[in-house]
Specification:
single chain; alpha+beta
C-alpha cells in the first residue's frame, strides 16, 4: 500500500483545511517540535482507513468524534487517497456533533460501506485488519517495543507482510536436509573407524614418521638449492666482470694507437713552435713589400710607363713567392693551434687510460677472489 494524499479539515490541532501530497515522495520523514502535529498526521492516516485512533482507546468513529474535532469547530473531515495492487482508493470521513459518515471509492467506483463495516471492508481489500496494521505497518507513538517482543500469530503476520514466510520455510527444509546428510556421513565415518580399530593408529604413526623424514629431506634440498643459487650468482657476476674487462682492454688498445699518433703530431708541432718567433718579422716584410708594390702600381698608373719588362716579371715572381711563404706560415700557425688541442687531448686520454688501468686492476682482483 502507498499513501498518495492526506487532506484534513478541523482534525485535531489542524484547524481549517490542510493537504499533504505524498505522491512524489519515495521516502519521507515527519519532523517538528513537540505539539506540532506529527502524531496527529499518523492518527489521521489510521482513521482514514479504519475509522479508529489508537491513542483514543480504539473506539469507533462515532464515539470519538468529539475527541478528534478541533476545539471550537462543529465538524471535521478526513480524506485519504491511497493505492494498493494497482488500484486507486479514496476514503472520505465526515464528522459532526450529531453525524458520522464515510465514503469509499475504488478506481472511481463507490463501494458499499458504512461506519460499522468500514474496518472489515478495508481488511478485505488490503489483506490486513486494524489490529495487525497498528502492530506492523503504522505503529503508534510509544508502542514500538511491542513489535520487538511479538510472538505467535503476530510473528506469522510479520513474515507474511515482509514476504519472507516461504523463504524461511525453504531455508528450514534445506537446513533439515543438510543436517540429515551430515548425520548419515557421521555414522559412516564412525562405522569405518570401528572397523579399522588399532590398525588406524599404527598407520597414523607410520605416516607421521614418513612425514618427518620428508620434511627433513625437504629442508636438506632447500639448503642445497640456496647454495646452488649463490654459486650461480657468483658465476654471473664473474662473467659480467670478464665482459667488462674485455671492453676495457679494447679501449686501452684504441688509446695506445691514439697515443702514438699524438706523439708524431707533437714532434711536428715542436718544430713549428721553433719557427713561430719569425712569423712577425716575416709578416712585416710581406706588408712592406705589399705597400711598396701598391705604391709602385699607383705610380705606374699615374705615369703610364713600363720601363723594364724584366723587372716587372721578377717583381711578380717575388710577390708570388711572398704569398706562398705567407700561406706556409699561416698553415703552420694553424698547426700550432692544433698542436695545443692535441696536447690537451693527449693529457685527457692519459688520465682516462690511468682510470681504466685502475679499474682493470680492481676487476682482476675481484675475479681472483671469486
Amino acid at each position: 500500500m502507498r499513501i498518495e494524499r492526506l487532506t484534513l479539515e478541523n482534525f485535531g490541532i489542524f484547524r481549517g483545511k490542510h493537504s499533504v501530497d505524498f505522491s512524489k515522495l519515495k521516502f519521507f520523514l515527519i519532523k517538528g517540535p513537540t505539539g506540532a502535529g506529527k502524531s496527529t498526521l499518523i492518527d489521521a492516516i489510521i482513521f482514514g482507513l479504519y475509522g479508529k485512533v489508537p491513542r483514543h482507546g480504539n473506539l469507533e468513529a462515532g464515539r470519538i468524534r468529539d475527541m478528534v474535532i478541533t476545539k471550537g469547530e462543529r465538524s471535521a473531515k478526513v480524506t485519504l487517497d491511497f493505492t494498493f495492487n494497482g488500484n486507486r482508493y479514496r476514503a472520505e470521513w465526515l464528522l459532526s456533533k450529531n453525524l458520522t459518515d464515510v465514503r469509499l471509492t475504488k478506481n472511481g467506483y463507490r463501494l458499499r460501506v458504512n461506519v460499522k463495516s468500514m474496518e472489515k471492508v478495508i481488511a478485505q481489500e488490503l489483506g490486513i485488519d486494524y489490529k495487525n496494521f497498528i502492530k506492523t505497518i503504522c505503529i503508534p507513538q510509544g508502542r514500538f517495543s511491542e513489535i520487538l517482543s511479538t510472538k505467535g500469530e503476530n510473528v506469522e503476520m510479520l513474515l507474511k507482510l515482509f514476504g519472507i514466510e516461504e523463504k524461511l520455510q525453504e531455508l528450514r527444509d534445506r537446513v533439515k536436509e543438510e543436517l540429515e546428510r551430515i548425520k548419515a556421513r557421521l555414522n559412516q565415518v564412525e562405522g569405518r573407524l570401528i572397523q579399522l580399530g588399532d590398525k588406524n593408529y599404527e598407520l597414523l604413526e607410520e605416516k607421521e614418521g614418513e612425514l618427518k623424514s620428508l620434511k627433513a629431506k625437504r629442508e636438506e634440498l632447500e639448503e642445497k638449492k640456496r647454495e646452488l643459487e649463490n654459486r650461480v650468482d657468483v658465476y654471473k657476476k664473474r662473467k659480467e666482470l670478464e665482459e667488462e674487462l674485455k671492453k676495457l682492454e679494447s679501449e686501452r688498445g684504441s688509446l695506445e694507437s691514439s697515443k702514438e699518433e699524438i706523439r708524431k703530431k707533437e714532434e711536428e708541432l715542436k718544430l713549428l713552435e721553433r719557427l713561430l718567433p719569425f712569423k712577425g718579422d716575416w709578416e712585416r716584410l710581406v706588408k712592406v713589400k705589399r705597400e711598396k708594390l701598391l705604391k709602385e702600381g699607383e705610380l705606374k698608373k699615374l705615369k703610364g710607363l713600363v720601363r723594364e719588362e724584366k723587372s716587372k716579371e721578377e717583381l711578380s715572381k717575388y710577390l708570388e713567392r711572398l704569398k706562398d711563404e705567407l700561406s706556409i706560415l699561416t698553415a703552420k700557425e694553424g698547426s700550432v693551434k692544433r698542436y695545443r688541442e692535441l696536447r690537451k687531448e693527449l693529457q685527457d686520454l692519459e688520465k682516462k687510460l690511468k682510470v681504466i688501468e685502475e679499474r682493470k686492476k680492481k676487476l682482476e682482483e675481484e675475479i681472483e677472489e671469486n
